[in-house]
Amino acid sequence: MLIPYLTLGAALFVLGLVGFVSRRNLIIMFLCTELMFQGIVINLAAFGRYPLTGPPTLDGQAFALFLLAVAASEAALGLALVVLLYRFRGTLDAAAWSTLKDS
Amino acid sequence: MPIVAATSLAQLPDAAAPLIPWYAATLPFWPLIAALAVLLTLITQRGRTQAHKFVVGGVGVAAFLALHLFFVVLGEIQRHQSAEHPASAAAVAADPHTAEAAHDSGHDNHAPAPKTVLRFPLYRWISLGGEHWIDVNFFVDSLAGMMLVTVTFVGLMVVIYAVGYMRDHHGHPEPGYERFFAFLGLFIFSMCMLVLAGNFALLYLGWELVGLCSYLLIGFYYQKPEAAAAAKKAFLVNRIGDFGFALGIFALYMFISPLVQPGENPLDYAVAFKYAAALSPDQCTLVSLLLLCGALGKSAQLPLHVWLPDAMEGPTPVSALIHAATMVTAGVYMVARCGVFFVGSPIALTVVTAIGAATAIFAASMAMAQYDMKRILAYSTISQLAYMFVGLGCGAPDSAIFHLYTHAFFKALLFLCAGSVMHAMGGVIDVRQFSGLRAVLPQTCRLTRIGCLALAGFPLLSGFWSKDEIVHAAFETSPLLGALMLLTALMTAYYTFRMFFLAFGGPTRLPPEAGHHPHESPAIMLRPLAVLAFGAIFAGYLGVRLSASRDGSFLGFLAPGGFFHDYLASSTIIRTAGHEGGAWLMYLSSLVAVTGIVAAWVRYGYAPLFDPDPATFGRAWRWWHAKYYVDECYDRIFVRPLRRLGEACFGADRNLVDGLVNLVAAVPTGVGLALRSLQRGSLQAYGLGMAIGIVALLLWWFASAGGVNAALALAARGSLP
Amino acid sequence: MMLALFTVIVVLGALGVYLALPRGRAHPGRAPLLVLAAAAGLLAWLVVSVSTGGGPRAAFVVLSTLALAGAVRVITHRRPVYSALYFILVIVAVAGLLVLMGAEFLAASLVIIYAGAILVTYVFVIMLAQQPDDAPCDVDAREPLWAAAAGFALLAAIGSQLFGPVAIREPAAPVGDNVALVGTVLLTRYAVAVELAGVLLLAAMIGAIAIARRRVTSEEA
Amino acid sequence: MNALDLIIFLPLVAALVVWRLPDRFAAAVPHIALGVSLATLVVGLALWFEIGRAGQAELVAQHEVSWISLGDSDAGGLTIRYHVGLDAISGALVLLTATLVPLAVACSFSAITHRQREYYAWLLALTSGMFGVFAARDVLLFYVFFEFTLIPLYFLIGIWGGAQRRYAANKFFLFTFAGSVITFAGILYLAIRAAQLTGDRMVTFDMLRLSSLPGLSLVEQRWLFIAFFCGFAIKVPLFPLHTWLPLAHTEAPTAGSVLLAGVLLKLGTYGFLRFALPMTPDGAIWWAQPMAWLAIAGIVYGALVSWVQRDIKKLVAYSSVSHLGFCMLGMFSLLPVGLSGSVLYMINHGLSTGALFLVVGMVYERYHTRDVDQLGGLALRMPILAAFLMLFTFSSVGLPGLNGFVSEFTVLFAAFNSPALGPWFGALGATGILLGAVYMLYMAGKLLFGPLREPPNTPDLARGLTRDLTRREIAILAPLAVLVVLLGVAPRIVTDPLDPVLDAQVMRRIEGRSARRDAPPPALVWSSSVEPSGT
């Protein structure tokens, strides 16, 4: 049963990636990163439950928990930034922020 | 022509050669000290008008020492001969200027006379690596003695003349008066160094210093662009000759150095002549031809003659001294000095003769079609030098030197007379502008007539004797050459007296520049002229043996081969031509001279306004007048292409090489611009970039290392932790 | 053979997502739905044929299709609020799968923390950063084609490995109470990590407050 | 802290002092700089006499102290030592520098008006760099000073230069730097190989030890020679790599171009003499003929191009290309006389071209133009300057009796008689005698002779200049004139201490491998019977 879980995880990760790359709304982009986290959680759990060698271990799950911590803090900061950006430019469009462009 | 075994030079005593007395060795430095003294007066601005006193004094001392040296060498020859042939101690002529030099005819000068050389080492100059050195040392033999006397004596006369010449009408010295005398002193110093040099490098030093002085003196009136251009042209043409000369010295070292014992310097005369016999004919030819280049440059022979006529831009004393009597004869002196190499290779001798003959006829023809008095004399000098080269080529170097000696007197005389004419005519020297000056300048006219007669080879004057010997040697080589020489003699007589009659003959006409009444030159100018005239008449008798007339004819009793030749026989020159001059030859050459003079008198006796020559000679005359368009050819063949090449190189330098460099510099900027467009500033683009990066990475990993399967296989083997 | 099938699924999925992504005014219409449904069906069939061991395959298939559908809707929906809500659906599906795998504690924490805390924050932000409807940034996707292509190329690459020839051994079922076991693991092996996670969260909190506190006056905008 | 360290670091310290001097003393800055440079001249002379006494046995004023040493002797490592010392070659060049610097400083009194303090600071820094290069006995120390000299000159040209000074400074810096980087690679390779060959673990950069390593293979030596060639040929400059020189010279201030031409060009030739010949003798023999061809090309090319120049300074700059072509020709004749000729050439070129640049600078200060067509007949207006210019023109043309001739004669003599090159090289090189006269007399004639031609409202006699040379300017040119005549009449002052050192340092290493080039030199048909022995 490992392969199906891995494909699912990969699919979720890829969908998150596609969403991140194609959507221009900052919040949705962040949401997509969260989606990518879900893909990773499944993979971690799957490898924990169906390890290639030896009995199932719980390390995967423990790591997933830490992943959650990271995701939470990332979301907090990210969204604070998004709000700030929104207040600056009044729009959530990612294209508004292109100061990195080389003139 | 029999090649005299050079072994006769073998017993040249070098290390053991006796030393010149120390005071005689200071000879060249007196004019130098005089020149520096004048320079000092220039710097300190005091006593500038006395400049000429220093130089006259310096050259005077040099002349005296030269004379003394002449007799020291003579005494040395006597001692040497008495040591080897006690019986025939040659009688000594008291003074070169006394009329006849009686000579005991018993001595048969065919056997090679013992070589007498005096030397004086000063100090080591340049190291040639290892134990070979170039030293500053003097090498005096009878040739050098003779040359020194000629140079310093004529130099003294010219300097004295210049004191008068370089003053304007009311006797005040012209601007640059001191500079002129300083350069003259420097010139005499360089010429003496050239003659006294003991090795080829020092000869090269004298050679170039003389070139420098001629540059400075020709360009004396530097305000005039033509004078500056003439000076530059003279120096550069001489430099072309020196280029060959330098290569000759290097080649000489290359051939001589393997033969030389340790402790001997290959470039010293004594050593070089000692081992000259060991050189193969080919090597002799190479060295001779290269050295000949230098001679041609300096003595203004055919290919490199273009600078001498332009050198007339300089003040007349300069033309008289440098471009008639001394510097231009350096080439003849060098070829005579290195006779042992030329004799060693028949090719070289024929080249010398050919160039001499060609230049003689070539220059004579040009001289016939000029109107500037000094240019006529300039071409005549080239022609007379060509005579000397023919003498050298025909194995009669002592005749050549004899002609050089006599030519110095009458050519200097003629130039200085032209100078006093110019002085009187307010700087005009074109014979068409004036005529009938015998009334206005009686003394100059008399002196010029003597000079012209000597130059034309009128019998019993010095020119006649020396030219006659060369014509005789030419006949001995080949009758055609002899005939050519006689034809040139005819032309010489013709153009000399054409000039004389145009200037002094006919009604008195004066150019406006001459002022209301042109007066005769001051005494200070005329007295040296008189001395030179005396020399022009009697100098010839030094080379004549007054013996009982062989065939009873009037001239027969004057046979060539007098004191002069015996004196020179003991120098390093090698005479291969015979000595007996046929009496018939003397009659022929006198006849030729007289016909030339009469022809000139017939056509130009009354100084016609319209020159008859162009009509008679037609197109040939135009070529002669335009100096065979040689200058223009050189300009188009060498000068202009070189200049275009320079422009092309400079162009290439700017675009090609710089272009290459800028191209290299452009590469990084180009790449930078290309990459810049990637940074569009949109977040998505960066995300997409990352995604593509991951995909590429994965694909590469899977492709190369077998990807997950390999990992799984590893895991299966339990090697993963 | 399975790899070929998987590639077909990937292509269909990519096409479906590409069509589903919002472009301009026009409503995407039915096409993407059909394509995605086909892809989901094939994927379900593939999973069934691959998973060898027994166990709740049916539950896995249901939950995974649910998760995938939710995910697709998250990225393709025009209005951000609905995307957030669909995201909650995805989290629930994932939690279910985790329970299937015996990771009950993780599933529970996922639902509580993710759905409860993070998604709520998202909804707050969406509320704060109100944009007029059909703002250009919601409507248009940027280079959907490239995005879909790149994403599913990645999936294909991964798939090419997963469905490779290697036969994978099925391990035994886990034993014991998951929550207790995870608790012990956390407090024994990862004790330091837990403390660090706490510090990380504290820092994030302070950061968020600092950012949000700055008054952005209008002229700075 | 011996005399050598003193002259290396005194100017540097003085530079710092001068730079930070408060405004009150601003007027004294030029005089301080002059004083310091004269002090270095005195010390330089003292060192030269000591070299004369010491003979070629060992180095004079040697001072060796470890500078950077990484790792230790058993585990292997690297040691760079501050090792300075003078033998005759370095001593001669140090003396040349010590002579030219005070003249360069003195000539800037009236030329430089803005930012004087920095100007003299950079000038003094350049001086210490130059002394350092010639005194360095450690390869890396040499390289450090070699690069250090670039910086002051970059600023001197960049700030006080002419119109295109920025471009000229950049081009100068990049050209030299690009080459020297390759040389640096060569040096590293050589040092490491040397450590391997001699077996000691510590990689050392001492010049003596790196010279003529026994085990270095022919191929290595050829490639190492190329590495050295890249760095030093640009500096010389050899023919194809010379385009930076005319630009740098025309844009540099007078003092800058005097030192650039007088000393910095000698870094290249000195580099060849110290590195290429002793360290890669087989490489030098193998590349001798191509180098000679480049040198001859440089001679002819430099002469022709300088003949068509309109700007006098560019004319003199291109003449340096031609002159240094001679210098290289002499060096690659691989004969003792050739080497001593080329070292003498470096000194003579330094004196005569330095003097020419000074004179051109003086003309520029009065007429503010260097265009040959706008000037003419200056001899009437400035007789003293005309006299000096004529003297230096004839010195650089190689008139016997002046210094140019001695070195030119020996160089061509060596090229003609050298087994490695052969007569044709000497002959072609000798055309330089002729071409040299052509362009130098062209310049002298245009500038001094002919009718008087001056640009409008000049000569500009501001800043204390007089119509002809001021006493200060005469004081600058007089010593050079004396030296030019002295070295012409008695060159043994320099060559006597030089010859034994050249023999020991360079010739013994080359003769050890008298591996003649595969094909014997093109022997002339005449000399077949008498084989030229070389020496």
Number of strands of chain B: 4
Q: How is the largest sheet of chain B built, in terms of strand order?
A: 1-2
Biggest β-sheet of chain B: count, sense, barrel? 2 strands, antiparallel
Sheet having the most strands of chain D: 3 strands, mixed
Strands ordered across the widest β-sheet of chain D: 1-2-3
Would you tell me the overall average pLDDT of chain B? Answer: 83
- Estimated radius of gyration of chain B: 34 Å
Principal-axes shape call of chain B = elongated
How much of the sequence lies in strands of chain D comes to: 5-15%
Number of strands of chain D: 3
Order of helices and strands of chain D: HHEEHHHHHEHHHHHHHHHHHHH
Structural class by sheet pairing and helices of chain B: mainly alpha
- Mean pLDDT of chain D comes to 87
Q: Please state the structural category of chain D.
A: mainly alpha
**Oligomer class:** heterotetramer
Descriptive overview:
The complex is a heterotetramer of chains A (103), B (721), C (221) and D (535). Chain B is mainly alpha-helical and 721 residues long. Chain B has 29 helices and four strands. Chain B has helices at 7-10, 22-25, 29-44, 51-84, 142-165, 177-196, 200-218, 225-256, 269-275, 281-298, 307-310, 316-325, 330-337, 339-344, 346-368, 373-393, 397-424, 437-440, 442-456, 462-477, 479-504, 523-538, 563-569, 583-604, 613-617, 619-625, 630-676, 683-705, 707-717; strands at residues 118-127, 133-140, 544-546, 558-560. In chain B, strand 1 (118-127) and strand 2 form a beta hairpin. Chain C has 221 residues and is mainly alpha-helical. Chain C has one domain: NADH-ubiquinone/plastoquinone oxidoreductase chain 6, subunit NuoJ (Four Helix Bundle (Hemerythrin (Met), subunit A), Up-down Bundle), CATH 1.20.120.1200. The radius of gyration of chain C is 21 Å and the shape is flat. In chain C, 37% of the residues are buried. The mean pLDDT of chain C is 79. Chain D contains 20 helices and three strands. Chain D has helices at residues 3-19, 29-54, 88-111, 116-135, 139-148, 150-160, 165-198, 207-210, 218-235, 244-251, 254-279, 281-307, 312-331, 336-367, 378-381, 383-397, 403-417, 423-448, 471-489, 492-512, and strands at residues 60-72, 76-86, 202-204. Mean pLDDT of chain D is 87; it is low at 514-535. Chains in contact: A-B, A-C, B-C, B-D. Chains A and C meet through helix 1, helix 2 and helix 3 of A and helix 1, helix 2, helix 3, helix 4 and helix 5 of C.
